[in-house]
Amino acid sequence: MADERLPFRIDPARLYEVGRDGTPRTDRGEAPEWLGPRHRLILGWVMLTGFAVGGLAGLSALCFVLGARLWAAGFALAMLATTPLLAIGPGLDWWRHRRPHRRRHHSRSLDFPPG
Predict the structure, then answer these.
(1) Residue 18 within a domain
(2) DSSP secondary structure letter of residue 42
(3) Does residue 79 lie within any of the structural domains?
């Protein structure tokens, strides 16, 4: 187990990620504040699509119990088709707020502190 006390301090302004292709990237995006407008938008999209998926699953189960197997299969396929919509909220947040702050560097950036 590594010792938590380091002989140096890590400066967050100098951190960067290196992708699998070897390209360094810096990310200055911030997570949404708890229950702020961005967070509520993400929760709203997830709840809306969650209700749609849950409603279609419920209709599928109800039709199956009532003996309408063709309708149950149709609602089950619709439920499976709408499941990827659950990624809309997080995807929109990434596209609008995180992606613009993520920069790709071919060399050391000029605003990067000297080491």
Answers:
(1) no
(2) H
(3) yes
H/E element holding 104?
strand 102-104
The structure tokens listed for 107 are 């060399």
The model's pTM: 0.59
User: Residue 102 pairs with which residues in a beta bridge?
Assistant: 27
Beta bridge partners of 27: 102
Phi, psi of 14 (to 5 degrees): -105, 5
Name residue, tokens 């071919």: 106
Distance CA 92, CA 66 (A): 39
Quick check: is 56 in a domain?
Answer: yes
Count of the separate structural domains present in the chain: 1
Beta bridge partners, 24, equal: 18
Range of 74's domain? 38-92
> Kind and range of the H or E element at 103?
strand 102-104
In a domain, 113, yes or no: no
pLDDT in 10s for each residue of the chain, 115 residues = 455 676 667 666 666 666 677 676 766 667 777 888 888 888 898 999 999 999 999 999 999 999 999 999 999 999 999 999 888 888 888 777 776 666 666 666 666 666 5
